[in-house]
Design brief:
The protein is mainly beta. The chain is built from one helix and 14 strands, in the order αββββββββββββββ. It has one domain: Beta Barrel (Porin). The radius of gyration is 23 Å and the shape is elongated. It starts with a helix and ends with a strand.
Length: about 260
């Protein structure tokens, strides 16, 4: 009898959990399109062989290039372990611009692992980036993670044109969330759990131009599909107030200048 009672209790708890999970409504959907731009300048220095340091500044435009999206400053280091593999890390100070002004800068740290191989005149590379972003404002961690952790996987192919200063390339990138908050019916009655899903698909094409040995230019276009979830709870009771899946298609044009010492 004790075993039967135990089995019935477990089944009842499982059913209650399933019914409660099913009570969370499907998200509403919102779709938008935006034309964006990026302008960047960078300085690269190789103090010793296989080790390079970089400092950069970037401005991003949004809302059909009519307003500034963010300004970000970065420093990084990269070490070439061998001909086919390199490791690196960088830090970014991100200053977002909202309609209310410049508020709540964010700190971002990246760890990069990149493998590359040459196939004929094509250079293939795969970069795995662990991206961690720390907020400076106060948020409900059931609505937004802090810090936010994302795994970014990028596959890139460069074509080396013989006797040319131009190097065209294609790339494809996926962003995977690692600690996105899972939606619950009431955050005061539930434990914080993480959800994982692809939040961005990116396809891009560009070309690099070597002006001289020290000066480089790059022009590119990205087509991004961004998927994010806007979760809103009632602060006093903790009940789920709103749940929206925001789908945004972004067309991004960019130009980058690098001085390589």
């Amino acid at each position: 009898m004790r075993n039967i009672y135990y089995i019935v209790t477990c089944v009842a708890m499982l059913c209650a959990t399933t019914l409660r999970a099913q009570s969370v409504p499907a998200p509403e959907r919102a779709t938008s399109n935006d034309l964006r731009a990026r302008v960047e300048g960078a300085f690269e220095w190789e103090p010793v062989k296989h080790l390079s340091l970089e400092a950069s500044f970037q401005m991003r435009l949004k809302e059909d290039m009519s307003t500034v999206d963010r300004l970000q400053t970065g420093v990084g280091v990269e070490y070439e372990v061998c001909k086919y593999f390199s490791v690196g890390a960088d830090y970014l100070l991100i200053n977002p611009h909202e309609r209310s002004g410049w508020e709540h800068p964010r700190h971002r740290a990246n760890l990069n692992l990149e493998a590359s191989v040459k196939v004929g005149r094509v250079d293939l590379s795969l970069r795995e980036r662990l991206q961690t972003t720390f907020r400076t404002d106060s948020v409900n961690r059931f609505e937004k993670p802090d810090p936010e952790m994302v795994l970014r996987s990028r596959l890139e192919a460069e074509y080396n044109i013989r006797h040319s200063k131009w190097t065209p390339y294609l790339l494809f990138e996926l962003n995977n969330t690692l600690n996105a908050p899972r939606v619950v019916e009431n955050f005061k009655e539930a434990a914080l759990r993480c959800d994982n899903y692809v939040t961005r698909y990116r396809a891009g094409a560009g070309v690099k131009y070597r002006i001289t040995r020290n000066h480089r230019l790059e022009f590119y276009y990205y087509m991004d599909y961004d998927r994010s979830y806007n979760i809103d709870y009632k602060g006093n009771k903790g009940d789920l107030k709103g749940y929206v899946q925001e789908n945004e298609f972004r067309h991004i044009f960019g130009v980058s200048y690098k001085f390589k010492l």
